[in-house]
Amino acid sequence: MAQLVDASIAHPDGQGTGKLTTKEYYKEQMKKYQLLPNHHIPIGIDFSLSMLMRMNTGKANSQWSKSNTNNCPTHKQENEKFVKRYKSLTPNELQTAMNISCRDFMEQLSNMVPCIGCRRSVEESYRECVEKGYDAYFPFIVDSDGSLYISKFQLEAKPLCDHLLPNNYMRPIMTTFNKFINSTKPKRCTIHSLDYQRGTTISAFMDVWEWMNDSCREKVTVVNRVLMEETLKEYLKKHRFCTECRAKVLRAYGILTLEVDQVTESGYVEEMFDGIQYDSETKNFHIAPETVLVGALIGRALPEIAGGRERHAKSMETAQEEVLTCIGVCLFDRFHKIQHRFREEKRSWELIMCISTTIFRRKFESTVDEKAGMGNLDWCDKIAQEEEEKVIRKRQKKQRKKLNKQKSKEVNFIK
After folding, report:
1. Is the pLDDT assigned to residue 40 strictly greater than 50?
2. Which residue among 195, 217, 218, 404 is buried most deeply as judged by most CB within 10 Å?
């Protein structure tokens, strides 16, 4: 199972435009990408949030592979056969075989993956890996020219056997992958369907919340002020608040941003904004990363996302509720984007790993067969010669039978 292990917030520039920070920020991010551990993938959520996803392919999977390999006679035979074929190649031949071009990979991608959205996602992930240089697909390494190869440290018989045979940790993924490519359903998968992109349930929040650690939860529940004000503006315009109601909602928002003194506002309920703090330096709203609080805010937003209803804010308490609804809309949109990007990147990672495994396995087999064929040319010629001699002997035998038959007819005629 994949996990979200880190998140970073890009603060807006001093002018409050909501754009990412300066070029120095990008340079620092590039350095971080190159230092990422294996199977870690950076994903961008929106202009103010990026996250780090870790694909779990470690001890648990390797133990699963080891136990299944040791207990299953079929797997033992496959391993022994693979090692025997492996020993027939020299190190240089093996290193040459374990290298594929970007063009070959993309051709296989177009042939094996029917979903257009998945193909585009894989191409984008592959291109980012080439540009940024992180090892997300270890032991398969993407070079700066787009070619794909296996590290020389992984070219020993045992690790290469684990990487290329289907009884390793990739077996469950390969099974799912084969079902996916052999499907007769429409050309778009569930992840890239329009129904999924228009999701209006709380499942996005529940799923994403389980995928994240405490550090991620704390950063994901930070809402940028620019985003909040854009959401609030669209919300007021959509529901056509009257001048009085609009003013009350904006005053409630001003209390939250510390621009309006709450003492001057009658009917203000301080407890309604508990767990929400505004940081004037970073211009961000910090929501306490508590499951109940975040779930309640998103729950307020669901009726609005599902279609909405007529809105009024005759009292300050109602105006506060409208502000909380807008915060819930921001959080729901973010969690929905995280869910979509997470599943999309996870699918792209699985497809790249499966396609690479398939190509390398085919290339390994063809290299071994080609060498075996070249080494046994004399043996092949001998077999061909024997087959030709058999044909000649059969022909001669038929001719003898024909002659004997004619002689017997002549003798009978004379008698």
Report:
1. yes
2. 217
